């Protein structure tokens, strides 16, 4: 009896399930909004784009973008409005400015500095390694061990 109830519940969910409808009735407008929202960061999620986020703020911002597109604003004007309202952080790819130079070139500079440090460190370490001659009995013991190892192969 319990299994019939579970099965009936699952069937009811399947019957009630619908495919999500786009927010806008115009598919071209919705695609335009999602393409534009793909380059903007969700301020709540911070690692998701506005197009991918399900946060209430992201939904509201997409609706606002929809209204601005309907009003005839260009993509650049909409992005500038978002940047003016929420700051440069809203862009996934911030503009190259004096304030964002470290953001754009910092990783490359750190990589080069790290590689230079590694190269210098390995060069100095190679100079410090000095071969110490083995004593005669150590040399014999090494030869025995290496000979025994070769015999096993």
Can you summarize this structure?
With 153 residues, the protein is mainly alpha-helical. It is 64% helix and 0% strand. It has six helices and no strands.
Q: Name the CATH superfamily assignment of the largest domain.
A: Cytochrome C biogenesis protein
Helix content: 55-70%
**Unreliable segments (pLDDT under 50, ≥5 consecutive)?**
none
Q: Termini, distance in Å? A: 69 Å
Write down the overall geometry: elongated
The CATH class of the largest domain is identified as Mainly Alpha
Please compute the radius of gyration using only Cα atoms: 32 Å
Number of domains: 2
Strand content: under 5%
The total count of strands amounts to 0
What would the CATH topology of the largest domain be?
A: Helicase, Ruva Protein, domain 3
Tag the structure with descriptive keywords:
153 residues, mainly alpha, Helicase, Ruva Protein, domain 3, 2 domains
Q: Your description of this structure?
A:
This protein has 153 residues and is an all-alpha fold. It has two domains: 21-95, Helicase, Ruva Protein, domain 3 (Orthogonal Bundle), CATH 1.10.8.640; 100-152, no CATH class. It has helices at residues 2-16, 27-37, 56-70, 75-86, 101-128, 136-152. Helix 2 (27-37) packs across helix 3. The longest helix is centred in the last third of the chain and has 28 residues, at 101-128. The radius of gyration is 32 Å and the shape is elongated. The mean pLDDT is 82.
């Amino acid at each position: 009896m319990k299994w019939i109830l579970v099965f009936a519940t699952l069937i009811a969910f399947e019957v009630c399930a619908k495919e999500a409808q786009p927010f806008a009735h115009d598919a071209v407008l919705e695609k335009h909004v999602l393409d534009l929202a793909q380059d903007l960061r969700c301020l709540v999620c911070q690692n998701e784009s506005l197009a991918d986020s399900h946060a209430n703020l992201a939904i509201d911002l997409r609706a606002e973008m929809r209204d601005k597109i309907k009003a005839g604003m260009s993509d650049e004007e909409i992005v500038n409005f978002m940047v003016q309202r929420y700051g440069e952080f809203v862009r996934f790819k911030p503009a190259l400015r004096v304030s964002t130079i470290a953001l754009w070139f910092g990783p490359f500079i750190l990589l080069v500095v790290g590689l230079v440090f590694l190269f210098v460190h390995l060069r100095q370490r190679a100079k410090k390694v000095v071969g110490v001659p083995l004593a005669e009995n150590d040399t014999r013991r090494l030869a025995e061990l290496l000979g025994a190892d070769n015999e096993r192969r």
